[in-house]
Automatic annotation (TrEMBL):
Pfam families linked to this entry: Glycos_transf_2
Domain Glycosyltransferase 2-like residues, every copy: 438-607
Taxonomic lineage of the native organism: Bacteria, Pseudomonadati, Pseudomonadota, Alphaproteobacteria, Rhodobacterales
Protein name per Swiss-Prot or TrEMBL: Glycosyltransferase
Keyword set, alphabetical order: Transferase
The keyword Transferase appears for this protein: yes
């Protein structure tokens, strides 16, 4: 008798005898069997059709593809009427064939960032090379020193860099790409294209392969699809929805997709090397391990019984298979939404294997005894099953309904179980119409957050869900303020991030944590009048809004100038904000953002269409979102002062710090990213021509306005100087070339001495003495400009110079000789031009 499975949370769960375990398993097979039989029968018919009509070959994407192929063999008796093969691939494997192509950077980064968070570029490189990682290799040793954070700008800079290590990274990825292309050609034979078969859920592999190899016309057939991003030729056989929709029981698998993954996961490692690439032999060995895996009679009992069920019922007429499937769906929904303790243990499945070059597994049901029951429920990959272990009877069913969306499910919402933006269900629960998601981002600012909580509590309109995203700060003060806010706890969702993910990612977490008709961002330092929500929702429900396609509404706001003094907020001045605004046009928005998030309430459906806030932007994410919004819908204007936009622009609180505004404490960053946003829109081939024209004209207008404003400011400054009796002699003259820091001057002199060693040879001795003398005064600007160009080839980049950061911040040099494959480096650009332009010398972290 196998050992009983045990959950460490109290009360302990056991199957005391095999009869009881068999009884539970038979119940589950009777419920799940018709669903899996219907899926395989539909998959069979679709693959046969694509083979006969379009000449497509099936590729079962291993690992899950191995067991899908086994289920298909059980259905067909091993005689499938179409061509199919096991295909060794994984998400990181698909990224490896694409990461060397700058044209595919956007997709590669998105797929990689979905898994790898809060890691360095070195960690990323280790994951990409994994089995071939060897830090004695000179280029891998250089990649191992990249301590910069893995984010979009730094990753883009790595791809753009032309130093030997970056070229080695790209060249290896391109070898993977060409090797797999050759494998595809040889495997295809006389057929015309491929259809990928996998469990689901976002079809990331298909998205990457379709971009990398358009000549093979990839299609994808999956058990289910859970993604709001459009992807051509992607089909979910059982369901296609990012969330569970009560009116569609097939979508219940969105609540516990790990059940499907567990059933289909073979006892073999992930195939993370690339067929045909530099690690082809290892990839083929990994594929053979998957091909020859043996299901465990205990851990894989559910898979084995489902395979037997399919084999035993494969002869049924297709209409009977579908009828059984339709009849089973309500039972499946009830089983996954309202499991009892035995169901939870039996259907938890195996621990979820991690991938992307990492090792380990994540338990589906949380078993940390140091946590509270509610914390375990939030951490669980199947909250409904976790609730069954924590609670009993009516209490358990009520909480399971909340976690599933049948009631106030948002109490148990957590970013750890939210993979994509949720779309509105077709059959909405009671109270959905008119509901508002209020998203508040906060981090260690209890003094301000307390005011925001009072603003929410004071609203006369009560159909809202308040989502608080504690973005890497101390959660206990947040909990305390929430508890004393006066807001009904049933209306509150707290998402607490162990580390900060940034403003835009935090906004997305908050919006996606609940399902409402409307959304508004209420930052922790701003406030509303009590009837802000009532007036805004009423406006969008009006016939006027429907007629004009107003999907959002903007109210007027007060600008509040304030200062933090000790533990008090001192308000210095309150004045109308942007008084010239009386309408919201795309043309004006193209010049720059002119309203604060606190004044703007909008429909969630437009957010879903956009895909959320751009998480790659550290600032100006709301401006980019507003541009995308106006491209799709109109924004109405409510001529009432209903919001307060607070600025800590007085005293120390205006500096970069915990209480600073992003628009005050990060003004230089805003200025830098205006061009980043506009350039990104203009470069995007999917940007409509009209939108590109508006953005280009708006950016030109903004430049003209800035030049005029700067010119006017200069004239005013000169006039004030004259009026104050200032003489022309006090006017600043151009500073000219800057001096070289002593540490770099010493470094350059040391490089020269090493490059021209002391030698008995008179010629070499003279050369050493001559160049040592010429660079003796290299700190002086004119000496640097005179002699340094002649010896740059002798000066390598210092170990502490962060060339990735320099390339990230100055992409204008990517296509210049200073990022070339030969001798000139980003460090040389800083020496020759960056110092005089005022560019900061970026440094690697100590010990990197």
């Amino acid at each position: 008798m196998p050992p009983a499975r045990r959950c460490s949370v109290a009360p302990t769960i056991r199957f005391p005898c095999p009869c009881r375990a068999c009884s539970a398993m038979n119940k589950h097979i009777a419920t799940l069997g018709p669903v899996f039989l219907f899926w395989i029968s539909q998959l069979h018919d679709k693959l046969a059709y694509l083979h006969d009509t379009r000449g497509y070959k099936a590729l079962y994407c291993a690992r899950a593809g191995k067991r899908i192929q086994d289920l298909m063999d059980a259905y067909t008796g091993g005689n499938a009427p179409f061509s199919g093969d096991l295909f060794g691939i994984s998400r990181i494997g698909a990224c490896k064939v694409s990461a060397g192509d700058p044209a595919m950077f956007k997709t590669v980064y998105r797929v990689t960032a979905e898994t790898l968070n809060h890691v360095s570029l070195a960690d990323l490189c280790k994951a990409y090379f994994q089995h071939s990682w060897d830090e004695t290799h000179p280029q891998m040793a250089a990649l191992a020193r990249l301590s910069q954070r893995f984010d979009e700008p730094n990753f883009r800079a790595l791809i753009a860099a032309n130093d030997p290590a970056a070229r080695y990274f790209r060249d290896t990825m391109n070898q993977n790409r060409e090797g797999l292309r050759q494998w595809f050609r040889e495997n295809l034979g006389d057929l015309s294209g491929y259809v990928l078969v996998d469990s689901g859920w976002k079809a990331s592999i298909q998205a990457l392969l379709a971009e990398a190899y358009p000549e093979f016309g990839f299609l994808g057939l999956y058990f289910g699809v859970m993604d709001t991003r459009p992807l051509e030729n992607r089909f979910g056989v059982i369901f296609d929805s990012p969330t569970y929709q009560p009116g569609r029981p097939s979508t219940v698998f969105a609540l516990h997709r790990h059940l499907v993954e567990s059933i289909l996961e073979p006892n073999a490692p992930s195939i993370e090397d690339t067929l045909g690439g530099p690690q082809d032999a290892l990839a083929r060995a990994q594929l053979e391990q998957v091909r020859n895996e043996t299901p465990d009679p205990v851990a894989d009992r559910l898979f084995l019984d489902l395979r037997d069920y399919i084999a035993a019922n494969a002869g049924k007429p297709i209409d009977q298979i579908e009828a059984d499937y339709r009849a089973a769906l309500p039972r499946v929904a009830d089983l996954l939404i309202y499991p009892d303790r035995e169901d939870a243990v039996a259907l938890a499945g195996k621990d979820r294997s991690v991938d992307f070059g990492r090792e380990g597994a994540i338990p589906v049901l949380a078993d940390d005894t140091d946590c509270t029951p509610d914390e375990r429920i939030q951490r669980s990959l199947w909250p409904q099953g976790q609730i069954a272990l924590e609670y009993e009877g009516a209490t358990a069913r009520r909480l399971q309904a909340m976690a599933s969306g049948a009631q106030d499910r948002d109490y148990f919402a957590s970013h750890e179980k939210t993979d994509s933006a949720a779309s509105a269900p077709s059959d909405k629960p009671a109270g959905w119409e008119g509901s508002v998601a209020i998203v508040t981002r906060t981090k260690n600012r209890p003094l301000l957050f307390r005011r925001a909580a009072a603003s929410v509590a004071a609203q006369t309109y009560r159909n809202y869900r308040w989502v608080v995203v504690n973005d890497g700060g101390d959660v206990e003060p947040v909990r305390a303020i929430i508890g004393k806010s006066g807001v009904d706890p049933r209306l509150i969702t707290l998402v607490s991030n162990p580390q900060s993910v940034g403003m835009e990612a935090a906004s997305n977490m908050g919006v996606r944590a609940v399902d409402t008709e409307y959304v508004v961002i209420h930052d922790d330092d701003d406030a509303w009048e009590p009837d802000f929500l009532a007036a805004s929702v009423s406006f969008l429900k009006s016939p006027r809004a429907a007629a004009a396609r107003f999907e959002g509404v903007l109210s007027r706001a007060w600008r509040v100038s304030e200062q933090i003094v000790g533990d008090r907020v001192v308000i210095h001045k309150t004045e109308p904000y942007m008084t010239w605004v009386s309408e919201v046009s795309l043309a004006q928005m193209a010049v720059g953002n002119f309203f604060a998030p606190i004044s703007f309430l909008y429909r969630r459906s437009v957010y879903d269409a956009i895909g959320g806030y751009d998480e790659s932007l550290p600032v100006l994410g709301d401006w980019r979102f507003n541009l995308d919004f106006l491209l799709r819908a109109n924004i109405g204007f409510l001529d009432r002062y209903l919001a307060y936009y607070h600025h800590r622009d007085m005293g120390d609180s205006s500096k970069d710090g915990v209480y600073a505004n992003s628009v005050v404490g990060g003004q230089s960053l805003h200025a830098q990213y205006f061009s980043v946003v506009t350039n990104g829109i203009l470069r995007d081939p999917e940007t409509p021509p009209a939108m590109a024209a508006v953005i280009a004209n708006g950016h030109l207008q903004r430049i003209m306005e800035m030049n005029f404003r700067n010119s006017a400011n200069d004239r005013n400054k000169a006039l004030r100087q004259l009026m104050d009796g200032a003489s022309d002699a006090t006017a600043k003259a151009p500073s000219g070339p800057a001096s070289l820091p002593k540490e770099d001057a010493d470094y350059i002199r040391a490089c020269i001495r090493r490059a021209i060693p002391l030698s008995p040879s008179p010629r070499k001795l003279f050369s050493r003495l001559r160049w040592t003398g010429r660079v003796e005064n290299i700190e002086q600007p004119h000496e640097r400009m005179k002699w340094l160009p002649r010896v740059l080839h002798l000066i390598p980049s210092p170990p502490d110079f962060d060339h990735i950061a320099y390339l990230r911040d100055h992409p204008e040099i990517w296509a210049t000789v200073y990022n070339g494959p030969d001798q000139l480096l980003p460090y040389h650009h800083w020496l020759m031009e960056g110092i005089d332009l005022g560019y900061e010398r970026p440094r690697l972290k100590a010990g990197a």
